[in-house]
Amino acid sequence: MEPARGSVKNRIRQLRFEHGEMTQQALAERIGVSRQTVNAIEGGKYAPSLEVAFRIALVFAVPIEAVFQFDPDAK
Amino acid sequence: MSASFAEKSVWIQLLGMAVALGLYFVVAGWMLASGITILPDFAGVFVVAVVLLVAILIGGHLVAALMGRPEPADVRDRELEGRAEGRTGWILATGVIGAIGALVVAVEPVWVAHLLLLSLYLSELARLALQLVYYRRGM
């Protein structure tokens, strides 16, 4: 079996910018995680749970696919 | 990227375990090498090690709390811990199986107890170290 490929990309940095330069801390407080977790999600070092992903989308008032995209070709 | 309170806590636990119980194993190893095989003789050293561990944990967390705002562990912290535990649990399991085997061949209880304690110690060190790897490298 071939190893699974692909990774989850996100537009959180851009969405924060579009929402009045919302800080990572402000976003973290609204979704109930630490600032470091937001930083890890934004930097692609941590794929969030579905619940956290939905919370993020809810904060920016966009569909979840506008925040997260799956890139099947990424290693 | 600065460390979260939960990550700092893991560093403190790793340091405390490595120092306090590491010192215990140095002393216990010396005692075993000297021919001391009565288990209660080790109790005093173990109590001192546990007190030292608790002191390091309390002191470390106090300093961490003063340096930054303490926050409860979040979903990522719990996931990192669970994944690290899942990948290092075999160390403790190996120690337990080894201890059962030692009992079968009638090894002295002091050796069995220390085999169990050592496997618990190594398992915890590995878990904490792996958690820190996940925090830094991502997962």
Automatic annotation (TrEMBL), chain A:
The record places domain HTH cro/C1-type at 12-67
What keywords are assigned to this protein?
DNA-binding
Single GO molecular-function term? DNA binding
Q: Which SUPFAM superfamilies match?
A: lambda repressor-like DNA-binding domains
Source domain of life is: Bacteria
The record's section on Pfam families has: HTH_3
SMART domains for the chain = HTH_XRE
**Record-linked PROSITE patterns:** HTH_CROC1
Q: PANTHER family annotated for this entry? A: DNA-BIDING PHAGE PROTEIN, TRACRIPTIONAL REGULATORY PROTEIN-RELATED-RELATED
Question: Any idea what this protein is called?
Answer: Helix-turn-helix transcriptional regulator
**Originating organism:** Nannocystis pusilla
Starting at the broadest rank, the lineage of the source organism is: Bacteria, Pseudomonadati, Myxococcota, Polyangia, Nannocystales
UniProtKB/TrEMBL annotation, chain B:
| Residue intervals passing through the bilayer | 12-33, 45-67, 88-107
Per UniProt, the keywords (alphabetical) are:
Membrane, Transmembrane, Transmembrane helix
Name of protein = Uncharacterized protein
Taxonomy, top ranks, is:
Bacteria, Pseudomonadati, Myxococcota, Polyangia, Nannocystales
